[in-house]
Amino acid sequence: MICIKNISKQFGKLIVLKEVSASFNACECIALIGPNGSGKTTLIKSVLGMVVPDSGTIFFKGMNIKNDWMYRANIGYMPQIGRYPDNMTIGQVIDMMKDIRRSIAALDEDLFEAFNMKNLLGKRMRTLSGGTRQKVSACLAFLFNPEVLILDEPTAGLDPVSSEILKQKIEKEKQKGKLVIITSHILSELDELATEVVYMQEGVLRFHQSVEQLHEETGEKKLAKAISKIMNNPLEA
Amino acid sequence: MKKIIKYVIADILRNKIVLAYTLCLFVFSFSIFNLEDNTSKGLLGLLNIILIIVPLISIIFSAIYVYNSAEFIELLVSQPLLRKQIWISLFSGLTVSLVVAFLLGVAIPVCIYEPTAVGLTILIVGVLLTIIFIAIAMLATLLTRDKAKGIGIVILLWLCFSLLFDGLVLFLEFQFADYPMEKIMIGISMLNPIDLGRILVLLKMDVSALMGYTGAVFKNFFGTSWGFASSILVMLIWIFVPVVISIVRFNKKDM
Amino acid sequence: MNMHLTILLLLFFSVNTANANIIRVGKKNIATITEAIAIAKRYDTIFVEKGIYKEHNLVIDKPVYLMGLDKPLLDGESKYEIISVKADSVTVDGFRLQHSAISSIVDYAGIKIYNKHKVTIINNILEDTFFGVYVQYGIDCVIKNNTLVAHQKEEQQSGNGIHCWKSDSIQIINNTVSGHRDGIYFEFVTHSLIWRNFSHENLRYGLHFMFSNDDTYITNTFEGNGSGVSVMFSHGVKMFNNLFRKNWGDGAYGILFKEISDSYGQGNIFENNTTGVYMEGASRIDFQKNTFKHNGWALKIQASCMDINLHHNNFIANTFDVATNGSLVLNNFNENYWDKYEGYDLNKDKFGDVPYHPVSMYSMIIEKNPTAVLLFRSFITSLMDKTEKIMPGLTPENLKDNRPLMKPVL
Hints:
heterotrimer; A: alpha/beta; Rossmann fold; four-stranded antiparallel sheet; 7 helices; 10 strands; about 30% helix; globular; B: mainly alpha; 12 helices
């Protein structure tokens, strides 16, 4: 569904992405992991067209995204830090997004209800805590029933209950056959969700394997351990 | 696109500064017409507002607004929207709000006290300068991500256009006083929208003084309908060029 | 007693006999005015009926009253001087004259007066004449209620409307002159009066005035002339309640005073001129209760002027009030009203408490470098003007009004 070919990106002198290639398909749940500053978010933003790569191409459903913009209607994006216009209320932000998207598909308001957002609609964005912002971001990402979900550190800042709700939602969407891309530092929470693992380091895609394959190769059930095992043994990578 | 413009305008109106700006302009223009015993002195005061205050407010307000809307822009960019449309919407929203503010604040007193060619020219120049400085501000915000630095840049730009440029021109004039500079001066004045606007008003306000020999050269250029049209055209270019450059840059901008 | 009566009767009869004859010119009577003049006696009246008369050059060589009925037309066919007055006490009344000859050697005119006294030119219309009314060595002549229209294109090939040369005691009253080189031209004319004339859109000056002493002009309007009005090399000039409007151009002045002395101006209005009044080498002039309005420069006064006393004048909405070219000031500018004055009158004596400096720094700059006019009213020039007001460096410090009026003079 998403095909990335040799993309590179440089911010000033800092090389953020270096000849990254990957391909993600429907029904997969990709765990995009790597240390801080390894280029995960830049990769995601490149897919979303928010960052323009210096070279390389990205295809969405076989179409080059370079001069396209409608493909983003098929993506739900939950940013790492949800930043919204300070003066707007939650209700206004949600209404605006509905207005802009003009989606014909039925709205998915599961999370909206699960997080009990109704009581918060009148609150201004600037007064919200980080956790509540994350909830808004999550609601918006799932609201339009997109085929692809890109979630950047989805559970950071969420309380355990909400975190669990979100995880269940992700699982549900995966079952429906959607492509889910998640980045996270907390590898343990990806254990139950991920079907594929993409590991990035210093702008280079180190490996891309299915979880089963990983388990087989390393003999470890836990993702964290499996990864560290591979990393300690660079030859295998 | 209309929707985004609508949200931008709603957002601008929500933060009250534009309302305060409108009110200030209104009170100021009314009071200068009331305080001065002849309207031509009132017009002079108004001219100063239009050549100094209007560009300053337009450029600073637009820059701050664009910086403060970074989140909003980021949100929009991740949506199925054309970047060009987002940027033009932002520009249009700012233009509509500030132009309406300017017209409400200045056009009403002018229509009451001075519904003449001078008054009309002042209004046209004011509107054009507002839009030009919004365009310049938006281009300037793309030069740096740092808000403080960005606002510094736009203040510097304003200072260049309103003061330093004229100082330089004056200096050049004295350096080359022995050469026929009239035609060159017309060209140079095209490089500064504030000067261009000022000259357009001057031609209506100080016709008598401008009818001297040198003045007549200027009058022959700017005073004809062709000259007037071309001055307006140059001012429109001053809007168009920064907007186009900023669209190109915005298309490549990383969020 | 008897003696007196006899003289009176004698006088009565002599006048009576002189006016006895009336000669009519027209279709049913004598065909041409030339014939009529030939048969006329001194002080006869000649009535000319409506019609077109091509008299070539009509010479009036005896004192007659030539009266046009319903404006008969005298056509010079662009070949002749139309009327030549070569006798004293001639009156030309109620004619329409057109197409005089044009020459660059001879000053052909519509009506020319040759060295005569007491000639009256009244109620005539002159169209397309080279010179309109030309007076040379005339004394006690009256030129009244005439309309002179020409459409001349070049200064070199055009004549003046009312042209007076080496004359004395001339009265020029209520004429309208346009399209000539100079509307009214005076050279070596003394003790004369110019009153209620309207001189407009002439190529050069509305009024041109040289070596003409002790003349007065009152309530005239000079509008839109190529270079305004010029008064030069004369003394004893008195001007009251004239209006000078819309004289635009580098060398155009509402009025140019050059080498004028012992003169007086009051109640004149200078409006919308590039320069209202320009004074050069003028001395001992009293200028009061005049109004300067909407001029580029209300007053340009060169350093060569002295003892000019300007007081109780109004300076309103001028781009610049006063400009000068030097720092020496031998003139008095006190007690005028300046609308640009920003001081206060705290002691309520109707005079501003601090002096007003009518020369702005920027007007000095423009004087030196005319191109700089393009920067006028810009932020930087306002700043410079304000600084100069606080610490005068460039502008002449003595050129100031120590007692500026707070209210305009009515």
